[in-house]
Amino acid sequence: MPSWSVADLHWTYNVTHPDKSLSTGPTYQNTPNSAISVGGTTFAYRDLGPEGGIPVVLLNHWGATLDNFDPSIVDGLAARHRVIAIDYRGIGDSEGDAPVTVAEMARDTIALIDALGFEQVDLLGFSLGGFVAQDVVLNAPERVRKLILTGTGPAGGRGIDRVGEVSWPLIIKGLLTLKDAKYYLFFQSKHP
After folding, report:
1. How far apart are CA 112 and CA 108, in angstroms?
2. CB burial class (10 A; 0-12, 13-18, 19+) of residue 155?
3. Is 121 helix (H, G, I), strand (E, B) or coil?
4. Beta partners for 124?
5. Regarding beta strands 34-38 and 41-48, do their DSSP bridges make them parallel or antiparallel, or are they unpaired?
6. Are the C-beta atoms of 27 and 93 separated by less than 8 Å?
7. Which residues contact 1 (CB under 8 A, 6 or more apart)?
8. Are 90 and 153 in contact (CB under 8 A)?
């Protein structure tokens, strides 16, 4: 079983920013959703980029669907890598009841990687997706070649215990102002 250290996490992932005016191939926005049944649950995902090699599996933030991935980031990755973006169980177009623990989401992710036939993947986890990615590495380290963590932290990490305290008022503000809560959570440097 491979072992991981902080030194293993210091590397660069090359992202190509394609000139959209020259692009004639699929983009993230025009790639249709696909579906796969895993353990009796149908999961939605998008698959784009060149075939072959080790794919990059994208794990999104809390409450996000396939449409919440940033197309320019996905297209940049897909210029050189196969990219698989997924909807968690019970979220977006995936069926079933949404998991209530990171461990459940990690088990689903491992099962999905297996069902898609990948022996090894690179995992990119954003926010909650980073929690899930870390749990995947802890439970199936042989399945993950590279781990890319963005806007996330470890269990017990500094400030993690305040996520609910910070998030819930902004979610409520989104409801009251009829704006997507993500506007306040991710795109405002100061919250009036």
Report:
1. 6
2. exposed
3. strand
4. 58, 148
5. antiparallel
6. no
7. 141, 142
8. no
CA dist list (Å): 67 to 30, 32, 36, 70, 71: 11, 11, 18, 8, 9
**Per-domain residue ranges of the chain:** 15-155, 157-192
Amino acid at 43: F
Q: How far is residue 68's CA from residue 61's CA, in Å, rounded to a whole number?
A: 9
Taking only the tens of pLDDT, the chain with its 192 residues reads 444 444 444 444 455 555 544 455 689 999 999 999 999 999 999 999 999 899 999 999 888 899 989 999 999 999 999 999 999 999 999 999 999 999 999 999 999 999 999 999 999 999 899 999 999 999 999 999 999 998 887 766 777 777 778 778 888 888 899 888 777 776 665 544
Q: Map residue 151 onto helix, strand or coil.
A: coil
Give CA–CA dist 187/166, Å, rounded.
14
What does the block give as tokens for 172? 């409520």
CB neighbours of residue 57 within 10 Å? 26
Q: Which two tokens stand for residue 30?
A: 């025009």
Residue with tokens 């781990």: 147
| Token pair in block for residue 158 | 């500094």
Alpha carbon distances (Å) from 22 to 14, 17, 25, 50, 183: 20, 12, 9, 17, 31
Q: Which residues touch 78 (CB under 8 Å, ≥6 apart)?
A: 28, 48, 49, 50
Which CATH number describes the domain made up of 15-155? 3.40.50.1820
Supply 100's token pair.
């209530």
